[in-house]
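Narrative of activities, Objective 1.

The group set out to show that a structural description can be obtained from nothing but a protein's sequence at a throughput compatible with the screening campaign. Below is one input-output pair from the validation batch, recorded exactly as produced.
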Amino acid sequence: MKYPLNALIKLLCLGDAHLGRYPSRVPTDESSLSVRAVWRRAVTEAIDNDVDAVILTGDMADNNNSYFEAYGALRGEISRLSQYNIPVVAVAGNHDHEVLPRLAESVPDDNLTLLGQGETWEEKILETGSGQSLRCVGWSFPSAHYDQSPLDIFNLPQSEYFTVGIVHGALESQDKFAPLAKRDLDAHPVDLWLLGHVHAPKLHEDHRAPVLYPGSPQPLDPGEPGTHGPWMITIDDDNHIQAEQLPLASVRYEEIVIDVSGREKIGDIHTSIVEQLEESTTELTKNYPLLQYLSCRLILEGQTRLHRTLSTEGLANTDSYDRQVNQCSIAIDKVSINTAPNRDLQEIAQLKNDPPGILARWLLKLENTDDHALLNDAHDAAKTVYSSTGFKTLGEKEPDPETLARLVNQQALLLLDELLAQKEDND
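Output recorded for this entry:
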């Protein structure tokens, strides 16, 4: 990474590591795929780049049950940073609200500063290598749940120093995990906000002061796709901020779309999948040389005469797609079939009173509107099912409108294919 020549402050930021957990759907006998390995790699980056501080935005430990594993990993690396005079400033999240205070009490040399215990905002002034002072202000979770905005009790005055605000909370969300409003972030005397809780990395630059969710440094499940890793932040003498993600994660979850249009045989589809997997992984390993494991969810799309076979039988033996590309192992987690039958809906819709013609006309309308009788009926049915006692205990969420529309379309196409097959058999 190339830093600005006039950079006065360098920070390494990460959060939501959840030390004590292991990425799902990943071989557990590979220590290099663990969260701990990426945490160690992040500390090495901090040392190699001689940063002024490491900022931790909460949930570094998964929970109290993981205390001993997280304690060893955190204490060991914080001690290593101490040897290079790199301080660590942290806040506690909802998962480590008990673990981090215990750790802060036991770390030697006072190299870990935990801000904001006791439902208060605290500050820490750091002297950087350039001689510039940096002010860190932060608030920590007092318990596993906190349904008020911690910004409501922010009472620290403005400072002449560049100020970094550190808090673990949910941006623009009314939940029980310290909800934060954008307007409140903008209202306080902070030059850069570093947040935890959201595992998807995101830099919001549409604020008076930039807002960064560093995300989880190592993704933990398929709901965390894309690039992960800590962030390097530099601040120059004009207080310009540069934030760049360091792609240190060894695991990646990815959705890969395979176009199977026109494929006549299952073997042709297998060939398309293998080719696309190898092409995608080759590109990823070129851009992310530390990537070691790719967990894929395949999405098959396009018109094919094999639509009914794929929709009813799926793909057998997906383990056959597991392979090694460069240094990266590939495994298939799930296959979604979003194909369509090789039928001309416009032509079928000309069948005036036949059921296939009626259904084809419904499908054509479904493509062009969000308000459709099929979708309305499906929404009512889904709401009834998901609000039932049996489903409530599973904790499953009702499908969003886009997912519901896709499911309705898929089932309607299967029905259309079956109706046409029956019609053809009777002709």
